[in-house]
Amino acid sequence: MGELRKSWVESANRADTDFPLNNLALGVFSVGETEPRCGVAIGSMIVDACGLEEDGLLVLAETPVLDVPFWNELMELGPEAWAAFRARMTALLAEGSEDRNRVRPHLYRQADAALYMPFLVSEYTDFYAGKHHAENVGTMFRGPENALPPNWLSIPIGYNGRASSVVVSGTPVTRPWGQLKAPDAELPEFAPCRRFDLELEMGAIVGQPSEGMVSVAQADDMIFGYVLLNDWSARDIQAWEYQPLGPFQAKATATTISPWIVMKAALEPFRTSTPARARPLLPYLREPGPMIYDIDLEVALAPEGGAQTVIARTNYREMYYSAAQQLAHHATSGCPMNVGDLLGSGTISGPTKDSRGSLLELSWGGKEPITLAGGETRSFLEDGDRLTLRGAAKGQGYRIGFGECAGKVVAAMALPDCAK
Amino acid sequence: MGELRKSWVESANRADTDFPLNNLALGVFSVGETEPRCGVAIGSMIVDACGLEEDGLLVLAETPVLDVPFWNELMELGPEAWAAFRARMTALLAEGSEDRNRVRPHLYRQADAALYMPFLVSEYTDFYAGKHHAENVGTMFRGPENALPPNWLSIPIGYNGRASSVVVSGTPVTRPWGQLKAPDAELPEFAPCRRFDLELEMGAIVGQPSEGMVSVAQADDMIFGYVLLNDWSARDIQAWEYQPLGPFQAKATATTISPWIVMKAALEPFRTSTPARARPLLPYLREPGPMIYDIDLEVALAPEGGAQTVIARTNYREMYYSAAQQLAHHATSGCPMNVGDLLGSGTISGPTKDSRGSLLELSWGGKEPITLAGGETRSFLEDGDRLTLRGAAKGQGYRIGFGECAGKVVAAMALPDCAK
After folding, report:
1. Closest approach of chain A CAs to the CA of B412, in angstroms?
2. How do the domains of chain A map onto residue ranges?
3. Which chain A residues contact residue B217 at CB under 8 A?
4. Over the stretch B392-402, which tens digit does the pLDDT of each residue have?
5. Would you name the residues of B annotated as active-site residues?
6. What pTM was computed for the model?
7. Residues A418, B335: C-beta atoms closer than 8 Å
8. What is the pLDDT of residues B198-214, one digit of tens each?
9. For residues A125 and A161, is the Cβ–Cβ distance under 8 A?
10. What pLDDT digit, counting tens, does each position of A376-393 carry?
């Protein structure tokens, strides 16, 4: 798993930072009144990458790449440029760097910075690739005999989401209105969601376009990096709307991502295998080697004014299908995949009760409410609840993290006149 | 339904043109080696709207709006600018216009022009809002007793599609590969689609962004215009993949739109009511007045080297839910709707056998193949088949049309090494 690369930015050498020199996570930040710009996390600091480019310390192409408040233009340059970028940033920030005095003026404290969406989301797809999650949900809705749909072991099931609803960590999430139908009601009502939930996921960012089909290995090469992702879900809206064409408004309120993109290269030491196959895959989905990453994940819930409780701990390696397999499947029909496409992994649940990545599973459909540190119970989210996803791959004396992926639930708006 | 407005462009006064002065349909074109640019269809000609703006004949805003090869920037200006644009274009092209000699150099023959995507598709949503279509498909799959899903009469059912797969008329459509499972097979195979189909639809283009919920009336005001739309569909891929999260790769190969956007204002004389409600709608979906348009539609199929046969004739007014209702529903969850979002109506089938908007329905799932003019039969599309959608609202002595929405089916590619 490699070892810590030391930086002259002291806070980057601490074992508990998400952002050692090995990471070089990418974000978009502002300090004070400055315009949002591209930055790289290093320890407790951010180095202004746009400023490095302006000063000629970082040359990525013949024309500027980082003069825009998103990282898509670096993605477009391709894997060789991604590697060159990391090598140059590593040299600039490494212990003993000759350029440290020229880099130092470009450092800002993360504590002083506002963070923004780190990339422009082209299109957003969400998958259903966690076997424990699919089995849990299937058992609740169809019984243990029919838990997994017949296609599940053959296809990385996915559906298209709404790119316009993807927001950065910290953005408040307003409880949605929607059509709800109680099991014993004849007709639906229009009301605020009563079963608002989270889904703990990872998001993979497509960094290169497809031309026709791609192999799993090619798809893996196209992935630029990863974020934490919370796919907020309105379970009651979904239950009434989803037949026969799948979830729609239940998933369109918001999807929160971490403000930091961890490039794939930073995760390579933690590459590992997906679980054993219950059924052989078709050749186009077969993996040429380990295709998932060992990343510890957790969800914490803090009620309004209360302490936070970690309600779930799991690991990305639980996923049955990797992002590379999902991307290869996504391109089979000839669907053009583009730079900036975001692929949600699907809810990441582990085999145990405390490793379930949604309240739907944790409270078993509301039948077994969980108890928080302050004694309150939760079946689904209440107004004022703040959810925080955290994740890190853990090496010898260092960790590769994503920062926090957080959002607070705000009460539904009053019914506007237009809907009365 | 108004009457023909006469133009000094003679071909625009013919009763059989899709593009009288009343229409002013918007496209993007090039002639010879020129770069693609915004143009307005008038009779058999195109007037170079970008050229008019450069010459100062058309002033839409303080800075140029049409110096890009898409119409999104006009959309962004909002409904008052849309009306001002139409008023000015009408004045420039009307019989007796004093500017005719300054406009004339900007005219090009449609026959000489290549046509491109007329707008940038922000996101693409497809609906399932035709009652006859839903009943036909439901009867085939679930029997006549359970034809309509329980939610169908309450919700404009929709799912998110892939904006990257939307192409302009004339783009060849390659038969997709995908996972197929025969009813009697235990496991799926990876093979070219054998049940490739069309769906005759209209597409509505969102021209203004939403902020929170919108009423049906507000949603209607946000719609910029309409296109013809063919939602190419791989029925066998869909049958295996669509449970539980809806269609995905089955709909991602291509969606073809007409090269001409007909602005909503041109269709206003043809505004009419949706069919009677089988069940009262929730208040947020109730219509303040007639919300659909009387537009005759047809699909023609021509085998490779053969004559074309009109295989279906129907009308847009068959839709149970209007685009305005779909857009109002789309925004309920807080989902941000943006300029350039495309909403597919859903397949437009009428009540009779010859008014069905897909081969799935026309051949009743392949059990009743249709016969073409040349004697060939079709259950689903064959390689080399060219499909053409046409549509027009019909006034007194004039019609408002969309041009052709056409595409030819190309044989599936050989299985690439990456998928072996």
Report:
1. 10
2. 10-116, 124-419
3. 418
4. 999 999 999 99
5. 133
6. 0.98
7. no
8. 999 999 999 999 989 99
9. yes
10. 999 999 999 999 999 999
CB A245 within 8 A of CB A226: no
Q: Which residues pair with A312 in a beta bridge?
A: A299
Place of tokens 């609840």: A385
Report CB contact under 8 Å: A330, B249.
Answer: yes
Whether B2 contacts B395, CB under 8 Å = yes
Residues of chain A where predicted confidence (pLDDT) is lower than 70: 1
| Cα B401 to Cα B165: distance, rounded to the nearest angstrom | 24
Please state which CATH number belongs to domain B10-116: 2.30.30.230
pLDDT over 70, % of chain B: 100
Q: Cβ contact (<8 Å) for B245 and A157?
A: yes
Which of A33, A1, A41, A30 is CA-nearest to residue A404? A41
Q: What is the ipTM score, two decimals? A: 0.97
Question: d(Cα B95, Cα B10) in Å, to the nearest integer?
Answer: 9
For B263, counting Cβ atoms within 10 Å of its Cβ (0-12 exposed, 13-18 middle, 19+ buried), the class is buried
Determine the Cα–Cα distance for residues A214 and A331; give it in Å rounded to an integer: 7
Spot the catalytic one: A106, A132, A133, A330.
A133
Whether residue B122 contacts residue B339, with contact meaning beta carbons closer than 8 Å, is answered with yes
User: Is beta strand B386-394 parallel, antiparallel or unpaired with respect to B370-371?
Assistant: unpaired
Q: A139 to chain B: which residues are within 8 Å by CB?
A: none
One-character DSSP codes across B159-172: EE--GGGEEETT--
In which element (H, E) is residue B76 found?
helix B72-77
Enumerate the residues of chain B whose CB falls inside 8 A of the CB of residue A123: 123, 162-164
Which of A163, A242, A335 faces B252 most closely, judged by CB atoms? A335
The two structure tokens encoding residue A347: 């809810």
Q: For residues A237 and A181, what is the distance between their CA atoms, to the nearest angstrom? A: 8
CB B355 within 8 A of CB B349: yes
Tokens representing B85 are 């644009």
Q: What is the helix, strand, coil percentage profile of chain A, to 5? A: 25, 30, 45
Assigned architecture for domain B124-419: Alpha-Beta Complex (3.90)
